[in-house]
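Ticket reopened. Same input as before:
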Amino acid sequence: MEQIRTLTALLDYAKEVGPMKISVACAEDAEVMEAVEAARKAGVATAYLVGNADAIKAVTDKLGIDLANYDVVDEKGGEAAAALKAVELVSEGKAQIVMKGMVATANFLRGVLNKEKGLRTGATLSHVYIHEIDGYDRIFFISDPAFNTYPDIKGKVDITNNVVKLAHAFGVAMPKVAALAAVEVVNPDMPPTMDAALLTQMNRRGQIKGCLIDGPLALDNAVSPESAAHKGIKSEVAGYADILIVPNIESGNMLAKAIVYFAKNKTAGIVLGAKAPIVLTSRADSAEAKLLSIASAVALAAHQAKK
Amino acid sequence: MEQIRTLTALLDYAKEVGPMKISVACAEDAEVMEAVEAARKAGVATAYLVGNADAIKAVTDKLGIDLANYDVVDEKGGEAAAALKAVELVSEGKAQIVMKGMVATANFLRGVLNKEKGLRTGATLSHVYIHEIDGYDRIFFISDPAFNTYPDIKGKVDITNNVVKLAHAFGVAMPKVAALAAVEVVNPDMPPTMDAALLTQMNRRGQIKGCLIDGPLALDNAVSPESAAHKGIKSEVAGYADILIVPNIESGNMLAKAIVYFAKNKTAGIVLGAKAPIVLTSRADSAEAKLLSIASAVALAAHQAKK
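Engineering reply: fixed in the latest deploy. New output:
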């Protein structure tokens, strides 16, 4: 496949490989139903709507959404039961994507990680932001800006593996991964520089595959060839990174939100590391961001189906 | 004075209150001399050029800069001696701003912090990025993205006090300060949220004056009124922050560099906390950023002179 370089191209690709089936946990949520309906209209996805069927009907009636286009799965046993039921539909192969609705994140994730019916792979779950930024010729993947707070090196390996798979699903055959820190030199007084160096060497030893990792790099060295040249950094990654692995939740969160609020951009976000892509949108996300998040999940699901 | 809301307005203001005198430590540096000459031509500054007079002449000859416009102070005793001499000119009141030239940062700062001839105030030195961002009606001050790695709460108080003074110098009478974290709730498992809450309460108790602090806030809550409303945050600061206090060097560095490399912006940066503003540009800074950094130092020097 050709490399997906914009989120408009992503949406086209998701239409091409879709529609995929989403299983929505506790679909009685107006904002989530608007996103699901937009994805259905775009030809990207259809959905099981799992939850209290009466409550779901009340929400969709209000929004003018025709339930005839969906499979409603009535589950009145509470949100934990609905979450588990939604996950089960994915485990059974009836849906390819699971999406969080009106359910507490903890209950939702308990369903996802359920030992018998869940979607666990053994890897850490991680969040990724997917950004198209004006002036750049490729998509940036930032991980983990939201899910893992202060991952250790094992956690960072999982985070990296998860996002590398996603980049492959976007047609980036050998993604360039910048392990970010505040500086480009290993400094024992700055732990993120050491984690970045470890990830780099693990990649060289074949312990992390399918990508080219280099770090520590500061953000400017990672994305600007001029800045990397100014610093005299010799690296195939510096200046050309596709994936930005951040040291911790504060740096990742601020980096991703700076892009959303300060740059001309399009953004999506999903949760990785389970057997199926997880869509977990936030109320503050724009309608476009929610649709693009579903499209990202569709692209990843298509990639996983190929294997 | 009227609030300075753009870096173009800053440059106009610096011309109005300038020219101020810069003391350049080891001026035998082409990039630094270009910046100083640009500031002189803009009517913002004049300068003492401290260092090896022969080397300075070689550099300025090459650039076509007329040394008749400057005061050259020959100091051939090495960079540490030149740095101290440059600092001394500021301590003696002959210059209002000190600027780092071709001297290692450690040697330069040893001069700045020299007990007898230096510029120490007892406060921590801190770096600030000053950003004008397309689409926003005010300047953002981000601190500390470069100088203090993992400041404790005492360090963060100094960092905040330093940048509040700078905001005053820019005519922001009562700057709104967002103490940033990844989330807006105090979470004992996320130390930056606790530091942010402490800064907020210290401000309420009058321990940090001249500003209005609120935190923890995530970046979106800090700069977007809609995002703050989505989260139901009641705060005079949320959505309207002027100053962003970051938890640590990684988050600050990535936030500031995301603005420089991903947003339509103008950026300046200086070092605060000494008796006089310190200009310490980096090779990767654009010529415009260097000029705006000098202009920021001029605005701060004018503010300090008023007191």
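Chain A has a mean pLDDT of 96. The interface with chain B takes residues 133, 135-136, 146, 149, 180-182, 189-190, 192, 218-220, 223-224, 226-227, 230-231, 246-255, 257-265, 283-284 of chain A (CB under 8 Å). Please confirm and we'll close it.
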